[in-house]
Amino acid sequence: MSGTSGDCGSGSGSDSGASSSSSSSSNSSNSSVTGPQVYDKGKAKAPEIRRNDSNEDGLDTNGHSENNRPGLGSDGVDSNIDFGFDLRPDVISSNRSLSAAAGSSSSGSGSSSFHRRAPSINTQRQAFTQINQLQYNQNRLVLAGAIQQATDLLNDLQQMNRVWPIYYPREAVEGPSSESASTNTNDSASSTANMTVLNGGANSSTNGTVNGSSDNSTSSQKDSKHQEISENGTGRSQNGNSINSSDNQGPRLVVPSASRQLQVFKLDLKLGSGSGSQELLNSLEKNSVASLLDAKIVQTLKHLASLRERINDTASKVLVTGDLNSGKSTFCNALLRRRILPEDQQPCTNVFCEVRDCRENDGLEQVHAVLIDREYDRNDEATYEIHGLDSLDDLVYEFQKYSILKVYVDEKRPPHESLLRNGVVDISLIDAPGLNMSSFQTTRVFSRQEEIDLVVFVVSAENHFTLSANEFISSVANEKSFIFIVVNQFDKIKDRSRCMNRILGQVEKLSPQTHKDARDFVHFVSSRDVGTSSGGGGGDDGPDGDDGDGGNGRDDDLSPDFDRLEESLRNFVLEKRSLSKLAPAKTYLNNILQDIEILSEVNIKFTKSERDLRLHELDDMTPKFEHALSDSVKVTEKIDKDIEHCAEKLYEHTKKELNRVLMQTGQLPSVSYTSIFDAYNYANSIRAAIIQRIQDAVYDCEVHARKETAIVVNSIKSLGILHLGEQPAFLKIFKEDAMFTKGRHNLARSIQAELSVSDFITAAAPTWVSVITNPFNSLLTLGEKSKELTLSEISEPISQVGTVNNALTVASVIGGGQMILQSKWLNHALNAVRWVDFQLLKRLLVPALVVGSVCGVAYVISEVPNSVPRNVSRKIAREVVSLGYVEANAKRIAKESRKVLKYPSQDVRTGFQRLIENTAHQREACEKSAKEAQAGYEYFVKLHTDAAHQRALIDQCNLETHLEVD
Ligand SMILES: Nc1nc2c(ncn2[C@@H]2O[C@H](COP(=O)(O)OP(=O)(O)OP(=O)(O)O)[C@@H](O)[C@H]2O)c(=O)[nH]1
């Protein structure tokens, strides 16, 4: 296949990426695809500019040509071609023909035409470079601004998340019984979940963003997202999970599809694929999710900072990575056309080797071995050791000593061929340790990619993609739209087309977009076949491949696949610099902003629903609060009134009962009288019986008070249950029997009521004596009085407590009168007096007095059974009155009742106080939540607007004008 001098530029047949290139290897009609280049390697690689308005060139109506792809031949253009375009960037962006022209940097159809047009091409190339630079700068500024804006938004979001944990959309975990999630999302869910594990949140839509299909895919994605969110209604999920911030532990929101669309902010618990990790995520408490998100934001901010650095860095970094022994170093050497980096069949590259143009090092070819933990500063030799290029063979093993080897080399090729010294941008080529060498090295390679503009992934044609390769490529896709895949050691493969098909099949699965543009991004090469000269010896004679004596180069270094690869790479890094350098930033920003929009939308919805819920609760709470206030006043007033009423009733009742008993004490005792000689004991028994009777009356009053108090207690209990939903705590320990167990008035001890002789003498005795001394008047008067006074006439004033004393006096008079009136023999004597002569009476006086006295004594003695109870009861009654016993007991009983009732009353009062306080607190909390939710709502609305605005700006940032691959 080499050495054929076929026409490489006129093929216009359609192709389907690299698959056609595979078939073309055996198809002469497509020799332009893989056929050998006929130009001299030292010169013919300069691209030709062809007339872009010529259909003869195989252009389609849009001015594109299949053959315009780098590495493919195309017809040349007239050497007198006029630029005919405005250099202003805005005009540039619409100048598609220019782009097409710039993109047609392929090999010429013949060396003669190349030589004829070379000066013109170089001039134009310079012009394009200028234009590219202008547009690049403009885009760079836009993206730098967007990075700043996104950083600000993220800082705000982080603050917000720390103060008010934001709601992270959680997926409904689809178990076997779950039918809630729509079946049409299952596939995407699982595939995304798989991708998540591999790439930490990227998905293939990333690629679409920059490839021209981004607008459509993004907007349709967004539309569907809007739809899903609106379908979810008012923030209560279709799965029945309600948004209720009071339930802080449960899932706060389920928006099944939203989280699937999150890319950068997708929380990955690294528990394997699918629902395991999701379940765990769903079960996490909101603060845990917030801190996971916080960590993501921190990570994102870091990445943005490195992106900013990267786009401000004028140099471009190309990372060459891949599995162990896939031929990365050999590939780098092939690109440099010098054997600089050590190649070995055994794993050797343990330290990153960054190859740069030696002009950055004052033209000196050196190795700067950067010491671990030192930040490389070329002007500070303390940060590195200087070695010659020939030391590299040893240095590459020293990964414990050096973090990176900066290799300054002189490519010694003209700018239009050289990669490092291209005159456009400083490029550095980084040879990385094999991915599957150790997890330590792998992690380093992963972390390195943040500062990388372009990744070239070298895979061995024999081994295909390993697991680590899969992971790495997926991870790269999070940010980079394009990745070069170099399938190396193709020369070792016998059945090449089968190998190609299999590898392309794998690429298709890994990155459909890369597969789509496989012609430019997937290359099957044999790096070892590319001519290189020995680097360490420094004696190479140039870039071309005729240095069969150097390194492992071969004479037959005409490797068309490699040329095409090189051309694509150059084209991509230099002429499509916006794409290689800025596209990662654009893609990443787009992903972040879209994630922010998704989070905002979910949170707008949540905060709105939360606010409405809180306001609704507030509406409900206000009347409850007012009711509680008025109930508290009414109920406690009623209870106080009931207590007071009860106490008053008991006071009155006690007084009435005791007075009644006191009134009846004279009649009550039923103690048997034996003789005058037992009169004292009789009187004592009477006394004790009367006191006991009064005490019994007091006890009865207490029993009555217990019952009355219990009734009020029950009424308070009912009020408590009715208004507070619970009975007062006191009632749980209330026992009515415990009342009046202490402090009962001991009447026996208080009452003296000592017996005296007078207690044994009837109250009528003095009256009786006066009857003797003033027989007529006294008797008549007495007779009249006795007839006039009746018991009923005097009982009424006695009922009044204050008149007990008078009543007793009156009772004694009545008692005496009745006694006299009841003595029949005295009546007979008085009747006889009317018939006896006064003189006779005079003479009979002394004997009459003697007889009278005897009769009087006899009378007194005979009256002891009657007079003692009367006298003793009077005496006790008088003493009870003087002690204020009735009043004291009435007060005591009322007080005890009041005291007992005070406890449940206090409980109810406390209950109301608690209720009011709780309601007030709830109201405050509710108001606070509503305010916070409102503030959150406003914040997220603004955040969404800002993010959408930024995303629109980024969308306008057209990186594609000069970036067409077609
Ligand atoms: N046949 C063949 N051998 C190749 C090709 N490229 C590299 N090799 C050989 O493969 C072996 C490994 O090459 P390296 O370039 O050291 O591989 P590497 O990926 O840099 O190795 P590490 O950095 O140690 O992971 C060497 O012996 C190379 O000569 C190729 O295209 N064809």
UniProtKB/TrEMBL annotation:
The Dynamin-type G domain, residue ranges: 312-605
Low complexity bias: start-end ranges: 15-32, 99-113, 177-220
A Pfam family of this chain: Dynamin_N
Region Disordered, residue ranges: 1-77, 99-118, 174-253, 529-560
SUPFAM superfamilies named among the record's database cross-references: P-loop containing nucleoside triphosphate hydrolases
Topology versus the membrane: Multi-pass membrane protein
Gene Ontology CC terms, in alphabetical order: mitochondrial outer membrane
UniProt biased composition (Gly residues): 1-14
Ranges of biased composition (kind: Basic and acidic residues): 40-54
Entries under PROSITE patterns matching the protein: G_DYNAMIN_2
GO molecular function, a single term: GTPase activity
Catalyzed chemical reaction(s): GTP + H2O = GDP + phosphate + H(+)
Entry keyword set: Coiled coil, GTP-binding, Hydrolase, Membrane, Mitochondrion, Mitochondrion outer membrane, Nucleotide-binding, Transmembrane, Transmembrane helix
GO annotation terms (biological process): mitochondrial fusion; mitochondrion localization
Compartments, record wording: Mitochondrion outer membrane
Domain of life according to the entry: Eukaryota
InterPro entries per the UniProt record, alphabetical: Dynamin_N, G_DYNAMIN_dom, Mitofusin_fam, P-loop_NTPase
Bias type Polar residues, positions: 230-249
Protein name: Mitofusin
Protein source organism: Sugiyamaella lignohabitans
Taxonomic placement: Eukaryota, Fungi, Dikarya, Ascomycota, Saccharomycotina
The encoding gene: FZO1
